[in-house]
Batch of 3 targets.
Target 1
Amino acid sequence: MSALGGKRTLSWTRYSAVWQCLFFCYRIAVTDDSVPQWFPYAFPFFFVGMWLVVTTMLGFLSGWFGLQEWYADDGTEEPLLKLSGQSGSMGAGVALSGILKLRAYPSGLGVGIWRLFGPFQKPLKIPWSEIEAEKSSSFFLPMMKLRLGKPANGSLKISARSWARLVDAVPQTDGRWIQMPAVERVSRRSTAQAMFVQWLAITSLAGAFFYFTSRSNGSQAAVPLSICIGFPAAVFGIGQLIRYARES
């Protein structure tokens, strides 16, 4: 077995105890007649357990646990640039909306996640020389797909503009030259236009859903058209403004 395969096996063994414990609790819950009496007191523990299971599953599906075996951040460098609240996707399409923490270090790219959403996911630091970047997109928004490791041991897709800011933060001075990954230059205007199209599409779909759903059963108390459109427009509009401020 290769070193990489061995480490992945160790990672799975390390977290399998959590799965076994929760499955045992589930069997007790569905077979114990006294569940209705103690369930309100046990629910917080059950919720925390399920949260740990879900976040652990996402850690495997995203490839984070495999990456942290090789590229764990040792904390010896100060970042040149910090970008928090970033959005992207990782591994097998695992969405990380607004919970990514990206760092530009002199030696590599730092990737972290809010601890609440990744209690077992350690911060990563991937050397610049082991990252390959290629142009991509996601729902009209210009993105960059990063292949992490050589050979590739994972992937990360983030905003093209955020990626350019991270790469540009690394100076090529003092006789030191680093072979940096490719960069796709994207203007603020292009990013704003893409996010506006996203907002328009999401608002239209949500508004149509509320409008036709509220009238599907012939109810006289149908939701007014202004609310069907105005509510999702306001909610998603605020979200897009926050995202634009973070990624531009």
Note: The chain has a mean pLDDT of 82.
Target 2
Amino acid sequence: MSLAAAVFASGSGSNFQRLVEHSRSAPAGWRVALLVSDRPDAPVLERARAAGIPTAVIPVTGRDPDQLAAETRASLREVGADLVLLAGYLRLVPSGVVAAYRGRILNVHPALLPAFGGKGMFGQHVHRAVLASGVRITGATVHFVDERYDRGPILAQWPVPVIAGDTPATLAGRVLAVEHRIFPAAVDHLAARIAAANAADPESDRAPGRTPPPEGPWFTLAPDPAPDPGYFFAPEAEHE
């Protein structure tokens, strides 16, 4: 049986869409069972409805943290969620949810953490900060989620060069292309490790989401087959 994943998102949902497409087109060992958003007007909700995936809108602003955690966990239990995937979710996950799913919550971040992470570092804010810093390499990171923004253990990273003349929009486009590759691959890996752990302990009475994932080592992603170099590099003339 495939693992059930709940995806949390606040915006347009391109990473959500990619996760759905990947899980349905390959024997991934997991499926997207729920879309959770903090915004009732988030475009990602339409993507979920079009894909036939249940949705839950759970507002965050002004909420009691314990009540928020309880409502969130109830929604996850309703679909039997084994994994939680943050795909452009701009809120801190309640500590009660982190505790229940520790080691089973992944986030994709549009930079090479620990650089350019933390509260307020999302979307164009990240890419503006990267360009202002003068660094030559950025990228995408998939990491485990804990009680702090962007501080959990890193599972996978993929570098993307910063090219002379880049704008936040052009840089964001190249990084997003990498996010769409690295995030599904990382989820595949974690799901396989969890499934193996569950198979080794089939009589476990632990609830979904409570079984600790197997310990590392984790992995490094390499393109296979190699993507078009245009994913990462502009023509030579653009480097001059």
Note: The helical segments are 14-25, 44-50, 65-78, 95-100, 123-133, 168-200, 236-239.
Target 3
Amino acid sequence: MVRALPASVRPFLLVALWALWAPVACERGGGHGQTAEIQAGLGRSTTYEQGTIRLSPRGAFRVSPVVSPSGNWIAVAGFRGEGLFLIPVSGGKEREVDRHLRGPWRWREDGGRDVLCFGSGAESEGLDPQTWEPLDPCAPLDYDPEWGHEVHRVKGRAFYSNSRLGTVTVVGPEGARTVPLDPGAWGARVSPDGRHVAYCFGTLARSELLLLDVASGRTRVIGPGARPSWFPDGERLVYSVVGQVVTSGRSGIVAKAELRVFDLRSGRSQPISLGGSEPRAALSAVVTPDGSRIVFADWRSGGIFSIPAPLRGTP
């Protein structure tokens, strides 16, 4: 059929056919990785071997998962960061919050319930994902009016990360203290106990993962890695190691990336099985609050996946 068409039309038809076929082919994982499908259909989750679950709908490209404080919900963005959507961690139908949103968002806990804050400006909108009711406006997102930098609040102290200066400022009852990292350091994540800061240096494709001891100010190099996320115990973190980048013009697309877990006690790093037979580009991994599962975005298929978190001392 394709050969019967004019030569000038064939490339456009092939691209269109690939766009329709690729998401299904990537999700099937070669035809022998999938064991069971639950709640089949658009907007519902799919279960694979080794407890791997695709939470986002087929054909939809989702990135940047953020798990709610209760561990019941995941907020994700759409293609190129546009749109805001909610997915139940346990699996189920995706819900659209704002298809065109390009602003930041975060979760906060209010009296034991999850509140999703989103939007830009001095105040953001609030939403209860359980009842889907709008709430009072939230405080400004992730920025402090005095410091103007990304903020993490842990154990009564506030951490301000400045990627331009390559510093982390710790503000607590004892006062403020600025700890130098590296100029251009990015992706800083504070451990739940406030004792360490994991951060990245270099481009995503060639990023190094480093670990700062807040008390001493000493830094250790973990190795190649990017976009770390802490386990609740503060003694392990999960991160991505990019293996392949496909360049297009001046930009690059991550085509392959694995997840690894680093144990602070043993100093060892172990890869994690992602399930399925197809390679994945696993980025933006986050650990659920109970430490039982890891949620990540696969930039090959555009899916949001959930996998069992490895037990301590096991790959």
Note: The longest helix spans residues 10-28.
